Amino acid sequence: MKKVFLIIAVASFLASCNSGNQGQLVGARGKKWHPVKPYGMTEVPGGSFIMGKSDDDIAGLDNAPTKTVTVNSFYMDETEITNAEYRQFVQWVRDSIVRQKLAEAAELGGGGGAQGNNGGKSGSIDDYAFKGANQNGGRRNNGTGQTTETPYQQYSIHYDPTNQRLNWDPEILWATADYPDQYYVEVMDEIYLPPSQSYNGQRLMDVTKFVYSYKTMDIEAAARDKGNREKYIQEEKVPVYPDTTVWIKDFNYSYNEPMHNDYFWHAAYDDYPVVGVTWTQAKAFCDWRTQFHNGYRKSKGLHNVNTYRLPSEAEWEYAARGGLESATYPWGGPYAKNDRGCFLANFKPLRGDYAADQSLYTVEADSYEPNDYNLYNMAGNVSEWVNSSYDPSSYEFYSSMNPTVNDPKNRRKVVRGGSWKDVSYFLQVSSRDYEYQDSARSYIGFRTVQDYLGEDIDLNQPPR
């Protein structure tokens, strides 16, 4: 019997050696990678450039002395993140919170979590019960033997795939006449403000409940510490709704109520850059965009994409220059007008004539001409958060390779590009400014970047 077992073992070994690799070193390869340029982004090819102010700006040299630095290739949003794009994030968080509360109510007060199937309309709160732990890698069976994709982060605890999954099958019923039972009513009453805080005949949601939860790790600190990295991981809970009151609070004795009431939600402003967003909220958006994209790719069995993030200060300035060395503005310079006398950006020209550039406040995110990297409004419109802490002397001590300074204890974060309410000096690609990370302004937005991992190239094309 032992001889038979030995023969079988040897035969299995020989078969395994002769299948596929034939005993050769071929490497352990992962999923096949099909790189794709992210939607709405443009490639910024890496390279070296002279970062900082020109010699004729003596005061500016103290804050941004010239230094040759090198950055890797990356993708960058062609425009600032718009109201419509940020609303997608807010609505996803809103729906997740509602489904979480409905699922909890179904467990506590419903009929034990039995789920109905009545064409997407709810018969009771039980239709929203948790679906249990994920067993199929982010995909669900639709009852016909086929699998369908599920929305990203279907879990009641966002970062824990072993926890119970939220049920995204039934639609959320927003009209009070459609509420199926008393438990559903109780949940929805928690989401909306009490009648005493509503006005103008509208039933308003309590947007303070729209909180996004995710985990971060201080990789740099963990890499330098040989101990347990658990102490460098922390959960972030970020209220995601933008502060629409900035249109009032930023300007005393100024009538800006229409912007306060309409700018974020009205369809007329869909393609305008989102404002009233803190640095912390911009970081949360980046995490959500990463997870949302990878959730779809996972449902298709595809390799994850790299993370979306805020650009470093060096990446932002390199992209803003558009390949022009030592230029004053993204279009070159030294003037903010073209040869026909038209302004080239949205800012505060002519001693405060805001409308001289054809706009009083912000403009659509793809207004004016892009720079040579096809990036719009890298000067003016709204200033942009970057993933760097502000230090007046940071240029003196940071690395010349992919430089960045991001001190978690320094709450002053760099903003770049100038805005609709700034004079032309702040539109210069080398000008630096800052705001505190938990502050929201009517003139600060952001755009995201993603590290470049290559793209599919036709072999018949000449190399770039």
Estimated radius of gyration: 26 Å
What is the CATH architecture term of the largest domain?
A: Alpha-Beta Complex
Distance between the first and last residues' Cα: 65 Å
| CATH 4th-level superfamily of the largest domain | paralog of FGE (formylglycine-generating enzyme)
* Spans where pLDDT lies below 50 across 5 or more residues: 4-11, 13-18, 112-122, 133-156, 158-162, 457-464
Strand order of the largest sheet: 1-4-14-9
Count the domains. 2
CATH C-level label of the largest domain: Alpha Beta
Major sheet details: 4 strands, antiparallel
Architecture overview:
This is Serine/threonine-protein kinase pkn1. Its EC number is 2.7.11.1. It comes from Mesonia oceanica. Strands 1-4-14-9 form a four-stranded antiparallel β-sheet. The chain has a four-stranded mixed β-sheet with strand order 12-11-10-13. It has a two-stranded antiparallel ribbon with strand order 2-3. The protein is built from ten helices and 14 strands. Helix 3 (83-109) runs antiparallel to helix 4 (182-191). It is globular and about 70 Å long. The chain has two domains: 48-82 and 244-451, Alpha-Beta Complex (paralog of FGE (formylglycine-generating enzyme)), CATH 3.90.1580; 86-214, no CATH class. The chain has 464 residues and is of the alpha+beta class.
